[in-house]
Specification:
The protein is α+β, with helices and mostly antiparallel strands and 151 residues long. It has one domain. It has two helices and four strands. The chain has a four-stranded antiparallel β-sheet with strand order 1-2-3-4, covered by helices on one side. The longest helix has 58 residues. It starts with 12 loop residues before the first helix and ends with a helix.
């Protein structure tokens, strides 16, 4: 009588299911990394846009302050605390807080705190750009006319 030895060829159902679970856990981790990298890329793009818009905002604020200091504009008198659109960019606005520079003999200098507000899909993010000193340049023509009228 001969003894027949049966050898197993292949995997059992439990082994296949265990391998699929390990693969599934690894793929979920990879997809989570993709999702977080897309969020980080969106935030980096937004920060770059904010930094690029800062020069436009600062020139706008400096122009408004120059008009206010020289007395040409009455609307610039309430510049502090209001929200204005960023020139040339609809998705962004800015808010400034003005404080006079202490011990400024000319009275023209201000510390300007700039906050740029980014709107994306109904969500607002506020980027505080900190305090920046601004001293509006004097309008020489207006100054000369004022000096001539005083004489």
């Amino acid at each position: 009588m001969s003894v027949r030895v049966v050898t197993q060829a292949g995997f059992t159902l439990v082994e296949v299911l265990a391998a699929m679970m390990v693969l599934l856990v690894g793929m979920v981790g990879v997809f989570a990394l993709f999702a977080s990298s897309l969020d980080l890329q969106k935030e980096a793009t937004e920060r770059m846009d904010v930094a690029l818009n800062l020069s436009a905002v600062m020139s706008q604020v400096q122009g408004d302050l120059a008009e206010r200091v020289d007395g040409k504009s009455k609307t610039a008198a309430s510049l502090s605390g209001q929200t204005f659109p960023v020139p040339g960019n609809d998705g962004y606005s800015y808010r400034v807080t003005l404080e006079p520079i202490p011990d400024d003999l000319s009275g023209r200098g201000f510390f300007c705190r700039v906050e740029i507000i980014a709107r994306y899909r109904g969500e607002e993010r506020v980027y505080d750009m900190g305090y920046r000193p601004i001293v509006p340049e004097a309008d020489n023509d207006a100054r000369i006319r004022r000096l001539l009228r005083e004489r």
